[in-house]
Recover the amino acids of this structure.
């Protein structure tokens, strides 16, 4: 698939089968502009369908931050949803509909990360505030540099987090009470605490080391059958929100088709011959 240039993101192919997505506003600590959501969705929808990609690493450019959260200066300009013009709110009912549509679309853009068929590995460093936590919650694997500092920041902006942290974070970490504490106070927590609460899978000394680990994991995943990998991600995400019985039935129906893949005999032959298997694009 032909490469595409984005204004606020960089997308590269550092290794075979692996895409690297970077938030690319380092001079602004990768703060998120409202319009960036459209690029975010386009990137992950495109990579999801790209047969030359089997795993994705998502990080932030520069040394300061994965993302400092919403770009408050931009969001506070007159005419935005955060600071509407008087004429935009004359009819409260119509304004409420406009806000709901905007919020649902923003949610869908962030959810494109979770919806992506390919595993997404989020590498976090420096500031990871607000929408950064929403994004990280959508990833399949989270790796942090030791300098990472997190915050579910939205209550400090006068709003409840509505892009996914409050719905996904409780299903990731070990303590529901801890989620309430960090969400109600907006207090920061460091990489060590994030690891203790199982928000991140591991912590590395530097961003460079964390990024290297992310790329190594992506390469390892990319060596596996793409049919098996995509099915596994799909099963885990479905089963998270359903009963064990529903998950088993869903898996059985899915595998009724997936078990017909050529990847199975290829995998068996590779295991028996102690060779690395080669799989077709998907």
């Amino acid at each position: 698939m032909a490469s595409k240039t984005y204004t606020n993101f960089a997308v590269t192919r550092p290794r075979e089968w692996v895409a690297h997505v970077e938030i690319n506003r380092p001079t602004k600590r990768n703060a998120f502009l409202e319009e960036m959501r459209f690029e975010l969705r386009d990137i992950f929808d495109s990579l999801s369908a790209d047969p030359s990609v089997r795993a994705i690493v998502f990080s932030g450019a520069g040394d300061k931050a994965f993302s400092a959260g919403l770009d408050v200066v931009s969001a506070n300009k007159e005419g935005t949803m955060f600071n509407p013009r008087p004429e935009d709110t004359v009819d409260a009912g119509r304004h409420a509909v406009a806000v709901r549509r905007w919020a649902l679309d923003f949610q869908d853009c962030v959810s494109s990360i979770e919806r992506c068929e390919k595993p997404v590995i989020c590498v976090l460093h420096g500031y990871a505030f607000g929408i950064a936590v929403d994004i990280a919650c959508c990833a399949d694997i989270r790796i942090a540099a030791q300098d990472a500092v997190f915050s579910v920041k939205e209550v400090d902006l006068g709003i409840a987090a509505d892009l996914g942290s409050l719905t996904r974070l409780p299903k990731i970490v070990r303590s529901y009470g801890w989620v309430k504490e960090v969400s109600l106070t907006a207090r920061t927590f460091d990489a060590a605490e994030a690891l203790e609460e199982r928000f991140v899978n591991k912590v590395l000394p530097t961003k460079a080391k964390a990024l290297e680990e992310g790329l190594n994991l992506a390469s390892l995943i990319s060596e596996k059958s793409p049919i098996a990998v995509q099915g596994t991600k799909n099963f885990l995400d479905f089963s998270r929100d359903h009963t064990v019985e529903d998950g088993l039935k869903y898996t059985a129906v899915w595998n009724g088709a997936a078990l017909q893949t050529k990847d199975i005999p290829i995998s068996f032959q590779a295991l028996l011959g102690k060779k690395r298997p080669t799989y077709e694009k998907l």
In short: The radius of gyration is 20 Å. DSSP finds eleven helices and ten strands in the chain. The CA atoms of residues 255 and 279 lie 18 Å apart. The mean pLDDT is 94.
